[in-house]
Give the backbone structure.
Amino acid sequence: MHRRSGEPLDCYDPIVKAVLYRSYGEAKVLEIGTVEAPLPRRTEVLVRVAAAALNPKDILTRKGKFKLFTGRRFPMVPGLDIAGEVIAKGSAVATYDIGQRVHGMLNGWRGGGCAEQAVAGESELAPIPTEMSVVQAAALPLAGMTALQALRDLLRVKEGERVCINGASGGVGTLAVQIAKLLGAQVVAVCSGRNAALVAGLGADEVVDYTHTDVTRSGPYDAFFDVFGNCPPARVSRALPSGRHCTTVPSPGAILRELQGRLLGRPRRMVIVRGNGADLRQLDQWYAARGLDIVVDRVLPFSQAAEAHRYLETKRARGKVVLVPDPLFDHQA
């Protein structure tokens, strides 16, 4: 992370601690180090990070799967989801005040959230609701907006429709079950038997244990959201007369289907989440109205980032994995 030119700051630490890696590779490349703190430009906000959530995109980026976009300028700091406090802002920022609690998803490829300070665009943030902890606030943005944009915008879920959520117990899945219900759908949730009670408690109308039941036998569905990425359209075609299928996993086939969807209007899509304050505020409103629970599997300090990455790679996390700066973690303990 390199220092950016920006407005003069009254409160600024030029060097901050961060989780970083100096080369692409397995989780062992992660370490704690120091980097130059970012400076906010005119429309950006500098946030003192209190929590940062992990996502599968962080794993793939660390492994170099997106090096075409991330390049080879090291060290890199992972993390796309942040929650914390505004400590400085650019001259054009009117929405937020110094000291205000905010959260959001950092757009782009290089991350930057797993550091003591991070910069975000004003439009990427939303105020943290009073009732929401900073851990929950970090866990919500990317996963919540992925589910919302997939279900509302790409699958166009309507009231009364039967929607299948495949991979219902992970970060995106636990939120997708609830958002589909909030959109008025009847939800069939697919997960392992060990997570059935969790998913049912989130409001699923029917829970399918994939270790015993073929998901295609629980159809027909009006829409199919493949969060886990192992049910391409061809596999579920008989159970999906409408063809309305969306995945989160960027395989070559999914990328091709997304291009066809955009150009030809076909209903098979791949969600490419884009962080924005309006969608995040909608999720926050649902949370404040007690219509949305945020499931957090575990909270670990920055110094255990490698362990957190390895756990997320098992694909057995129930909800989200969140990192917090070590002094804050010690205080919570």
Notes: Residues 240 and 311 are 33 Å apart (CA to CA). The longest helix spans residues 141-154.
